[in-house]
Automatic annotation (TrEMBL):
GO terms for molecular function: oxidoreductase activity, acting on the CH-OH group of donors, NAD or NADP as acceptor. It comes from Paenibacillus xerothermodurans. PANTHER family: 3-OXOACYL-[ACYL-CARRIER-PROTEIN] REDUCTASE FABG, SHORT-CHAIN DEHYDROGENASES/REDUCTASES FAMILY MEMBER. This is SDR family NAD(P)-dependent oxidoreductase. The keyword Mitochondrion does not apply. The lineage of its organism: Bacteria, Bacillati, Bacillota, Bacilli, Bacillales. InterPro entries: NAD(P)-bd_dom_sf, Sc_DH/Rdtase_CS, SDR_fam.
Length: 255
């Protein structure tokens, strides 16, 4: 009885060369999935591919700008030429900024919204439509943020974009359910990664620790279990529209 066996499945990880996306990609590969690592930085993608292979999985690298539908359509065609199927889509792109609200310019707003929200919508249109049309089910996993539910200071646009990702997740869960395509989101707490290190000043870290009952940051590998669970039809066949929190208790903390 192996609820987490992904053998024969193909997982497309948009932003699979990022810190968190890479860790989850390795986990899916290690549980048997063929993993398409999608990103713009080929060097980082190749590093993730090697780690997936070291974990006993199979992977290929695909280059794409996640905000361009043409790029995503090409990735879909290339992945289908590689394995003939897409069973799992994970959306991991992320962009952050500490710009104060009154200093925010709309070009920065647009850039963050394009990466964090538009990319998710486009990927769900391209890969989600393929899953719905083929009629064999599937799993879409969007990576949200703790700031999506409780807006955090210093990250206004990021918080707004991730709140929208939660809404998109629930909307598509309802829309895609008749085709057995499940749509869920993972809400990570504080996992130091490339995109948020620039806002982790000493006072910020102290504030986060005071609000996190486990009193530490998360390690990227601690998202692997949630990713494998949501990817596996055996383990999470009746889970859709869910926001799965992995945050060390941050969201449960008040005073």
């Amino acid at each position: 009885m192996n609820l987490f066996d992904l053998t024969g499945k193909t997982a497309v990880i948009i932003g699979g060369n990022s810190t968190l996306g890479g860790a989850m990609a390795i986990a899916l590969g290690g549980h048997g999935a063929n993993v398409a690592v999608v990103g713009r930085n080929a060097e980082k993608s190749i590093e993730v591919k090697k780690k997936i292979e070291e974990a006993g999985g199979s992977a290929e690298v695909f280059s794409a700008d996640a905000t361009k539908v043409e790029d995503l359509q090409q990735v879909l065609a290339d992945v289908l030429a590689w394995t003939g199927r897409v069973d799992v889509l994970m959306n991991c792109p992320g962009k952050n900024s500490p710009t104060p609200f009154f200093d925010l310019q709309m070009d920065e707003w647009d850039s963050i919204m394009e990466v964090n929200l538009k990319s998710v919508v486009l990927a769900c249109q391209v890969f989600g439509k393929h899953m719905v049309d083929k009629g064999e089910g599937g799993s879409i996993i969007n990576i949200s943020s703790a700031s999506s539910e409780i807006p955090l200071s210093r990250v206004f646009t990021y918080s707004a974009s991730k709140a929208a990702v939660n809404n998109v997740t629930k909307f598509l869960a309802r829309e895609f359910a008749p085709a057995r395509v499940r749509v869920n989101a993972i809400i990570p707490g504080f996992f130091p990664a490339e995109q948020n290190r620039k806002i982790l000043s000493p006072d910020r870290v102290e504030s986060i620790m005071r609000h996190t009952p486990m009193n530490r940051f998360g390690d990227a590998e601690e998202l692997q279990g949630a990713a494998v669970f949501l990817a596996s039809e055996k383990a999470s066949s009746f889970v859709t529209g869910s926001l799965l929190t992995v945050d060390g208790g941050f969201g449960a903390m008040t005073i």
